[in-house]
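Pipeline run #58 for the internal structure catalog. This entry was flagged by the ingest filter as a single-chain record with no existing model, so it goes straight to prediction. Upstream metadata was stripped on purpose; only the residue string is passed forward. Reviewer on rotation: M.T. Logging verbosity set to normal.
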Amino acid sequence: MLLCDAAQVAEGKLYILGGGWSITGPEPMPSAIAIKVDVGWHETEKMHHWELFLMDADGEPVMFDTPEGRQPVEVRGDFQVGRAEGIPAGSTVDFAFAVNIGPLPLPAATRFTWQLSIDGISDENWSLAFTTRPAETPV
């Protein structure tokens, strides 16, 4: 997983713009998360569900007011990886995806973490922490 300004996938490859940062803002900025998953041979040909959750420094979901009421910042989707012809049995198979996120009005000088979950399983290594810069004081 990598925080970046923008990302896309073409022909199974990740294309990343402005990647590898951990400090942003304080003004809302678009961002993206580039993700490469190594799918075990026994997990190919199956449908998988992924979710990304934005958490605050206390490990609580970041919430925003929406027309439907207060909602957590979450992104989710599904994927299925096939077994390409010629790949030896038992090999892991790459799956790359990119999540582009519009500008979020996050509080200044605050720590956040994107946490990934696949099929309801999460790991401490499947997270990306970042901090928003302090707000500029008027002169």
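catalog note: The first strand starts at residue 2 and ends at 4.
catalog note: The chain has a mean pLDDT of 95.
status: ready for reviewer M.T.
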